[in-house]
Amino acid sequence: MLTPHFHLSPGSYLDRYELLYPLAQGGMAVVWVARLRGKHGFEKLVTIKTILPQYADDLAFQTMFLDEARIAARIRHPNVVEIFDLGEQNGVLYLVMEWIDGDSLSKLYNSVIRSGQSFPVTILLRILADACSGLHAAHELQDAAGQLLHVVHRDVSPQNLLISINGAIKVIDFGVAKARDRMSQETSAGLIKGKIQYTSPEQALGHTIDRRTDIWSLGTIMYFLLAGRFPFEADNELATLHLLTSGRFAAPLPSHVPHELQAIVRRALHPNLEERFETAAEMQRALEGALPQPTTSQHVALFLHEHMGSVLEGRRLNISAALAQATERSKVHALAEVGVSTHDAPPARDGSYSGVRDTGVGAESDSLRSELARFAATTALSDRGSTFDVLAAPSSKTPFFQARLQAWAFFTPKPHHWILLAVAFLVPVAVWVLVISTLLSSSKTPAPAAAASIAAPVTSANSEAPRDTGTQMQSADGEKHDMAAEAHGAAPAESASPPPPSPADSEALEPPNRVGGPSTKTPGGTKGATVPKPASEKRTGKKKNYVDDGF
After folding, report:
1. Known catalytic membership, residue 477
2. Which domains does the chain show, CATH number per domain?
3. Which of 331, 455, 493, 540 is most buried, judged by most C-beta within 10 A?
4. 67, 155, 173, 214: which one is catalytic?
């Protein structure tokens, strides 16, 4: 018994298939649009069918699922959906089928009725004729020994007839199909496989069935699309089953339906098996013969686009958005595989990257490296401030290419690389400028000994200059003073020498004492305490101002 242990969602991987978009959900399964990726950029959209979680651990449903895969995978016909693969991962059984870009006959009919129109007879006959062709291929399926497998679909309905955008009709869902080598048991008492409204009387009664049961279902579809009601319908399923098994004929079709079409419906819905069409191919010939004008799959495609173009375009936009998200996820996975990890890279839904298969990134190509470079510069991870680190050791797959790609990723210029480069250039330049300026300034400065010898005479000359200058100025002042006195008739001074300077003037004129400060002289020439001068020897303010003005 298989028990799934992780939830499926967009981005989950089932082996090499990546789930993109949930397309539809039925009574026992959910259908996904998925992407298959291979080497050298190969990719293909597929449809994946998985059992619903509530039935995943039911052995009967698992057996039915496997039967559908085994039966449908053998059918090769353009009007039957193709089965590519059957697998199981983490307890989940899945069936891989071809992707049909289109919709079901039931949705097309509902769209036509909502628009206030009637379903065209020519389109209806073309669709049912192609469905007969696909069912006949399933009925004629043989085993390896050439023996018929007696396949019966048992669930032919408008929901299980797909119409592609090219007008091709595809029969789908052989989940309850009957076959000779079917693994699951036949219908139990009280259990009917298929939809009640399209069920044949023998199927409702649990009798032996064959291909003519599917012909009854085709007749019911034709009756419903022409009349807008079912041939046998009551207030509830039990009453409907009573009508089906009563042996009555269906109520006549509306009078506007051509008699030839009424005859085809009456024969397909005959209560007696022997009176029905023997094969689906016979019914196909009758339908094509009743066409009032040639109608091809191109006419069906135009009719589909007319009534469901907006719906199909909206679905394509959703799938395109899902593909864009898947592409970004695959680039993150590719970087992880080639040896570059992202701190913010989102893991897979199962919590790891273990579900990632070979996506073709091992090929040595310049296009891959350029694509990874563009992604590292523009991806949303860079916008969020993610950092890319080079792993310590390359992957074991294609080690030479992985090592080269790691080195390329490491040396890809980034903003902080330019800052480091600028600092590395400016610091040596600044050091050399400082060294050169120091050498130039030291070459212009004299040696210490020479500087001392030059400074000594300059100092002594400067120290003696004030005294000589003062004496000369005082002598000149004295001569000017005597000349002024003679001019006014006054007697000249007794001595031409100026009066002795005051202590303040002496201190200003005398050079400083190198040991204890300014020195003083007594009248006798002995150095000692300062002798105060008499008041008569003090110069007047005018004399002092005169002397000060000279200085």
Report:
1. no
2. 1-99 (3.30.200.20), 101-314 (1.10.510.10), 340-350+362-432 (no CATH)
3. 331
4. 155
